[in-house]
Amino acid sequence: MAAAVLRPARADDIDAIVGLLTAERLPPMQIAEFLNGFWVLEQDGEVVGAAGMEIYGEAGFLRSVVVAPSLRGTGDGDRLVRTALDHAQRNGAKRVYLFTMHAAQFFARHGFKLATMDDFEPAVRASWQYAAMSQMPEIAKDIKAMRLEFS
Question: Across the strands, what pairs with 115?
């Protein structure tokens, strides 16, 4: 089995990204709309990981970080996150936000700290993720909000 190759996502990757996300019960929303901020891991011709970054001025929103179960613990998830964070910094983001159910410790290794939805700045509140969490408090209670400030 070849090592996974990290590359920018293409339109023909969308179905595979959706499949990875739905398998992990993550929302496969607005991937096409933000495709220019997505990266995938490809292994043996198959998409086995993905991550996306939405930029809102000086803030970014890290989303849809997923790797196939066979790649967990390999560092490939870290590669995806570092790539997305580098992209955010290159594009002027000073802070990055995210929501997670079970991966707070993973994201904490990248410098994210627990936050509240009130900590999200106005530009990021325009994201579909924030809007969804605001409108579905029954789901939001099980989600951890996190924030990273670049130094």
Answer: 145
In this structure, the strands spanning 95-100 and 113-115 are unpaired
Q: Please check whether residue 41 is in contact with residue 12, taking contact to mean a CB–CB distance below 8 angstroms.
A: no
Asked whether residue 42 carries a pLDDT value surpassing 80, the answer given is yes
**Which of 87, 84, 96, 86 shows the shortest CA–CA distance to 58?**
96
Mark 99-135 as b/e (b = at least 16 C-beta within 10 Å): bbeebeeebeebebeebeeeebeeebeebebbeebee
List of E strands, the chain:
5-8, 38-43, 46-56, 59-67, 95-100, 113-115, 144-149
What is the DSSP code (8-state) at residue 30?
S
Sheet harboring 95-100: ordered strands across? 5-8, 38-43, 46-56, 59-67, 95-100, 144-149, 113-115
- pLDDT tens sequence across 79-94: 999 999 999 999 999 9
Phi, psi of 46 (to 5 degrees): -120, 140
Q: Which of 35-39, 75-79, 128-132 is the least confident region?
A: 128-132
Instruction: Give the amino acid at 25.
Output: R
Percentage of the chain exceeding pLDDT 70: 100
